[in-house]
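Input structure tokens:
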């Protein structure tokens, strides 16, 4: 078995199971996009569907994080949300160009997504985790969340 394009490691864990599970879904979606694009050279429609799912899930994940920031009055909310807004704008523009045939899903895009996710988790998300944990956010689930149940079943 070959090594995945994006490998989940303990280093990427923020220590909050709900967020880690969501990050793992993002890793899985990027790996699926890589496999379909590079390994299988799939039909462009299949790649567009995976890209759409990645964009859709990213928006949901960001909303979950930003809700936690508001609930617990995270002092880094503005900066972190700005990073989210930048990526959302970038990926929505990429998705639009791919859909219109002005761009393709290629190695450059996949490397961008991989680097962005790894950098964002390691240097942005790891900043809020200690704060949220100190405010009473649980590090592990008592029960899998509704979001985890929905998306885990899809993959």
């Amino acid at each position: 078995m070959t090594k995945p394009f994006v490998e989940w490691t303990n280093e990427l864990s923020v220590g909050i199971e709900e967020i880690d599970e969501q990050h793992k879904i993002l890793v899985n979606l990027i790996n699926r996009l890589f496999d379909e694009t590079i390994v299988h050279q799939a039909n462009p429609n299949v790649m567009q569907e995976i890209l759409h799912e990645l964009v859709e899930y990213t928006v949901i994940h960001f909303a979950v994080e930003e809700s936690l920031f508001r609930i617990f009055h995270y002092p880094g909310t503005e900066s972190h949300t700005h990073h989210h807004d930048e990526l959302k704008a970038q990926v929505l523009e990429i998705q639009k160009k791919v859909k219109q045939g002005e761009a393709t899903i290629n190695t450059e895009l996949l490397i961008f997504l991989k680097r962005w996710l790894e950098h964002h988790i390691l240097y942005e998300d790891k900043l809020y985790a200690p704060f949220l944990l100190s405010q009473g956010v649980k590090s592990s689930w008592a029960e899998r969340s509704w979001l985890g149940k929905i998306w885990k079943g899809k993959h």
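Helices lie at 17-39, 44-72, 77-99, 107-134, 146-154. The mean pLDDT is 89.
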